[in-house]
Amino acid sequence: MWIFSDNAKCIFSIWKQWCLCYAAVVCLLFSPVRTDNACPSSCICAKDSGTVTCRDGEDAEVPGDIPEWTSTLILKGRNISTLHRGAFMSNGTELQMTTLSLSHNGIQAIEPYAFLGLPRLHLLDLSHNQLEYISGRAFHGLLQLRSLYLNHSILPAATEQLSNALNTQSLLSLHRLELAGNALKSIPLLRSDMHNLHALVLMNNSIASITGGNLTMLYQQKRIRVYLALNPFRCNCDLGAFYYWLKNSSQCPDAGRLLCSEPEAKRGVPVENLREEDVDCMNENLEAVSYVFLGIVLALIGVVFLMVLYLNRRGIKRWLNNIRDACRDQMEVYHYRYEQDSDPRLANVAV
Known about the structure:
Elements: H1 2-30, E1 43-46, E2 51-55, E3 72-76, E4 82-83, E5 99-101, E6 109-110, E7 123-125, E8 133-134, E9 147-149, H2 159-166, E10 176-178, E11 199-201, H3 212-220, E12 225-227, E13 233-234, H4 240-248, E14 260-262, H5 281-311, H6 313-342, H7 344-350
Parallel strand pairs: 2-3, 3-5, 4-6, 5-7, 6-8, 7-9, 9-10, 10-11, 11-12, 13-14
Antiparallel strand pairs: 1-2
């Protein structure tokens, strides 16, 4: 009896171990296994160059299985409306990516810490999107970022948010910033010591003039090269400070392409070809002041004249009466002589 019981326990133990082994084999066969060489679906991977390219898809999220060896990731023509926090962290691990291109993806919002996990990123291209919201911490953690492209991407609702997002300690290494075609009316940089900028592209915006703090920043940061072509400059006296900076500085490589948009008489005239009197507010102010002063002087003269007339009203009245009497006496003499000349009898008597 005891022998039968021991055999049953032995058989049951062997059966249990066999079932566990079978279950483990089934899990290994049917569960997806990801290796470092795996390529995300609908993407093309080139491990030799470290490039992963994902084009034209309906995916609304960033691929979550980006290989760890990826140095360049290109996402284009996707349907990514929002970049969420840590969108590029693969299973919670940091990637060694240096180049990230996200152009033409219809991105509308960038949430805080969206690029978390990309500490070695050098180039970020967000051009040709439709950004309506940019968090003030959107670029947090990009301490090695050197080039940021935001051409034709910023909608009016995100213009003010852009300034907050760019003025962050995370972008201290930024060398090149491109903001062409965004209808900007001023330079969206609040402080000159927040970046290490060498090139600032502001072409094809709505900048009519550069004044105040923006111009002070350009004077302080001599290394910055600013590209300003295709902006509608208003060439009046308000352009004076910028005009003198442009004439005396070599920081604008495309200075010859800066054209006046207003007023109509100066449309199409290069800004650097303007005369000093065209942008000199002092002359215009002096001319306006001179006209005002002339009006005041004439008014005072008029008041003095009226006061003189009022104070001498009796003498003037007497003088006018005397003139009237003299005129009347003279007219009577002329009348008498006329009557004598016209009556022949009086003429004969006179003879």
